[in-house]
Amino acid sequence: MASPDLTQELTCPICLEIFTQPVSLECGHHFCSSCISQSWQKVPGDVSCPQCRQVFTQRNVRPALTLINIVEKFREQKVKVTQPQEEFYCQKHEEKLKLFCEDEHKTICLVCGMSSAHKTHSVLPIKEAAQIYKNKLETSLETLQKQMDLSLHSTREREDGILHMKAEVDRLRNEINSLKKQFCDAITPVSLTHTDFQTCFYRSQMEFYKPGTDSTQLPADIAGEPVKYIKVWREMRAAISPVPASLTLDPETANNQLIISQDLTSVRHGNEQQARPDHPNRFTDNLYVLSSQSFTSGRHYWEVGLGNKPYWIVGVCRESVNRKANITRSPENGFWVIARYPNCKSLKIPDVISQRKVKPRKLGIYLDYEGGQVSFYDAEDMSHLYTFTDTFTGKLYPIVNPCNHPDPLTLLTG
């Protein structure tokens, strides 16, 4: 039998949240201990019940022991059911993080906001704070764009080193434009996690000095900033709404050696052939499976959990790729993929993983259909791995290959 929803009965009439240290008044009504104390704090003389208005000459409250036990059990159940990630709940009070403290640059719960530790601090609702920082980040990107244009103009005044400087500026312009496109996709306001905002915004306001007669290098402080912005933005977005698109795997396209989970989000290599009917969309010679979702326009982002798998292939492909032959995984054949795989170059797959000291455990894939770009990131720190540039026509499908290894690849949905 399903447990009844006691949220309404266990909600404090003052703060409208689940009771924290509930107490009982003489009239029988219950409130959080801190809520009733603050309600009566500035009232001289007689006080009254905030709910029924019964007047009391003495401020007698007593702990509601039975209710405290019920609330504790309810909180335990609620956390198990509704708390997808511990970092979005206050570890001290087990309440959802709904406020942002500008003084300490961290998220706090309502109980923290009423405590003496934050009494004199500037505290905002988390969504309002998220919008403010979103605007600041976008402004900083625009400032960087103007600075890049200024740098390009100044190089034209010089003859020595102009070709080298122009290449540097063009590279940074493409990187910034890519980041701006990702920010345009940010529709919902986001939560703020504890990141180094002061340093980030301070450095984004740095003056971009005109290169001297012997300088052909852009300042390293400026060149490294765009990646930090997308890292901060991604961490902020994650706490309120799932960032990645919700994708599922299509069993009708899966090679018969692949085992797909019941929720259609995970795939691994099996030791035996799976009993599946023949289908024209099924891959027969390669261990591929496509998502059920395809894209014909717009900008999209999704993530694939890699774990510690030693081998994998991930990316996008055209709907029209040959599914019955062992063909080269190249853009010419409709594959825009990267891999952790021996002899990537022989497969014409960019070798962008083997040289990294720390191998990614989670891959972020960003598709800009009209812009003709497929970019890959280490989704844990948003460091850029590789970008394909091409012209897309027809349907594009996310594609994964777990290779001959039992550990799964997983489509992450939030």
Fold and architecture overview:
With 414 residues, this protein is an alpha+beta fold. Strands 9-10-19-12-15-16-17 form a seven-stranded antiparallel sheet, with no helix packed on it. Strands 11-18-13-14 form a four-stranded antiparallel sheet, with no helix packed on it. Mean pLDDT is 79; it is low at 186-194, 196-229 and 236-243. The chain is flat. The chain contains eight helices and 19 strands. Helix 4 runs antiparallel to helix 5. The chain has helices at 33-41, 65-82, 110-114, 126-155, 162-184, 197-204, 220-223, 225-238; strands at residues 22-24, 30-32, 47-48, 55-56, 62-63, 99-101, 106-108, 123-125, 258-260, 266-269, 289-290, 299-305, 312-318, 335-340, 362-368, 373-378, 383-389, 396-401, 409-412.
The first-to-last residue Cα distance is 30 Å
Specify the overall morphology: flat
How many beta-strand elements?
Answer: 19
The helix/strand class is alpha+beta
Indicate the radius of gyration in whole angstroms: 28 Å
Instruction: Record the strand order, biggest sheet.
Output: 9-10-19-12-15-16-17
Low-confidence stretches: 186-194, 196-229, 236-243
Encode the helix/strand succession as letters.
EEHEEEHEEHEHHHHHEEEEEEEEEEE
Short description:
With about 425 residues, the protein is α+β, with helices and mostly antiparallel strands. It has helices at about 35-40, 65-80, 110-115, 125-155, 160-185, 195-205, 220-225, 225-240, and strands at about 20-25, 30, 45-50, 55, 60-65, 100, 105-110, 125, 260, 265-270, 290, 300-305, 310-320, 335-340, 360-370, 375-380, 385-390, 395-400, 410.
